[in-house]
Amino acid sequence: MTETPLTRRGFLGVTTAGIALGAAAGWGPWPGGEMASASTEETSEGALRFAVLTDTHANEDESARMTNLRRVFAAIEAEDPQFVLHCGDITDYGSDDAFEAYRDLIPAALWSRLRHVPGNHEIRWDTSARRRFQHWLGPTSYGFDAGGVHFMALDPTQLLQEPGLFADDLAALKEELSEVKDRPSILFLHYPLGGANYYVNDTDALLRTIAPFPVRGIFAGHRHLNEVDRFNGLTQVTTNAARQGPFYLRVTERRGQQGRALHVEHVTLGTTDADVPTVESLAEIPLEAPSRRTEAIRIAPRPGDTEIALTAVPDRTAVSVEARLHPQAVFGARDETAWIPLVARGRSWHGAVDRTGVAAGAQRVQVRAVDASGMRREEWAEVELPGSTRARLAWELDIGGQLQGALAVNGTTVVACSTSGRVTAVDASRRGRVRPLWTADAGAVHRGAAFTPDGNRVVVPGADGRLLALDARSGHAVWTSHFDKPVLTTPLVAGTDGDDGRILISAEDTLRCLDLDGATLWEAPVPVRTAGRAACDGDRVYVGAGDGRGYAYDLRTGAVLWSVLTTDRPDRYRQLIYGPWDDWVEVLPTGAVVFSTVVDAIAVDPRTGEEIWRSPGSYIFAPSLPLADGGLLLTSEWGVVTVVDQATGAHGGVPRRSRVSSTPGRSSIRARVRRGWCRSEGCSPRCVPPMGS
User: Whole-model pTM?
Assistant: First the structure.
């Protein structure tokens, strides 16, 4: 096998950022050199023979699971496969201890044959996630050849996010497929695609990208079950989690009258090593070109006030056609709601989908056609839904990458930061065609910026370990503060008595306090890590940490004053994901401090950390909003808003569901004008589901 990086992100992550972080953390060298040197050249002798597994969820604190996984790898080694594909969720939360424990499970003779992709559990809860993965396991996106087939590892995971997104990586994928030309290709990744799977928000763009090429199959995990799906000319095999039992897939090439095919079997080991494994035939993936290519569906949507009328022209072999509005509010999950059948009239099919309650703006409609053999064709079409005459789009500006953090606003100046590395300032009061006031390059930014109190500077956190202060008028860098870890928290600029203020920012496990000129006043450790925004009441700084606790620090010295445990989960993994580590902490007008998790919002006494009240709900991702009447507006990750009493936490008011309209795969600043007032909104909110399968 000859292995080559597939994307610039996957390649550069190993050669630069990954190795640099490893050296800083005192890690040993990435074992990828051993893996690369042990690769064997492709030969024409013999049929393909490989194994697939997924969702091992290695956790050094769970010995029974690790014993189970050790048996799985021993059984795979005995099969003597040419290589092994791992479809992600290798560990529970991507810690160094978990990666090391996983590495210790694997027989030495098998290690060089493993090929990994990350899952959400590697990337979702770790501010150094992709760097850490690259250090232990190598690139996250790459391609290799074996037995006349091209295999491609795909990585749509997003740092600190649950949903997947391919975005700019699709250009590299297209280039790779163009180079291998007519060779059949197999993709492997963590998230299953198509059907009811909405784990990757631009699946439609991926399917359009691979449509001209001979992609024959997909291996995926994430759902912890076996499922075979046939759509768009390929066969997708989603396989069970190895953590749930001693499971893996055995894949062997077969050659017959229909040409080459991959025969996929599901292997379940017995209770003991002496028991005979159970082998179940699961799927057949044809490698040869089909005798006839299915034509793409042509879709013509016509939006109205209450519905979207549709005309669809599928392939002539279609026996049924259905449509639905793409469930844009579903992030990183499945959606099983009903599809609307269309009616055939000659070559075209007609019908309408309901758009009641759906936000105006860019949306997508989906159409799927099924032929007599059960093969499905899926297509999407974008549609712009008209809105109220009182709310119209004033302007839109594409800045590339994704917006994952809040916008910074000072007067009419709005600053947006993108994962593309671009920081853009605009005058939000403008109408028509809007040009940036300035742009700056800060490296990838995953959180929002903050203005200093005088509005003269914008403080920007960078995933490359830099905290930048930019001149708010020109975008030029005024000063830079360097960290050893990525800076993936939104800065807090807090006022203090006797001076102009303090900047409080965290980089993974370090909380730093700076003055407005960038001088470090003090640093303090944060247990495990933090990715949320700190809060300050003028005397104390409050931070949510990865050990399940909320902490109070002295603003002037950085000394820890107290901590409060927010969760009763028993181990390190669950204390992290059920704790306030990614919380935007708030100080209420009552003086109470609110730490939120995916389970509760907890108000505590600012002097002692003693709990005052607790309100159930997943409020970790959206800041709470104090209301003038004494209420506190809490927004859940699912878009449900609830009002509670600031003093007691008692519920008051009726929960209401809100929806956000966004266009995946694109970052833009959009401004809508209502009754003469302008408000800016980012195309991607911070609220995302906390956990995958």
Answer: 0.87
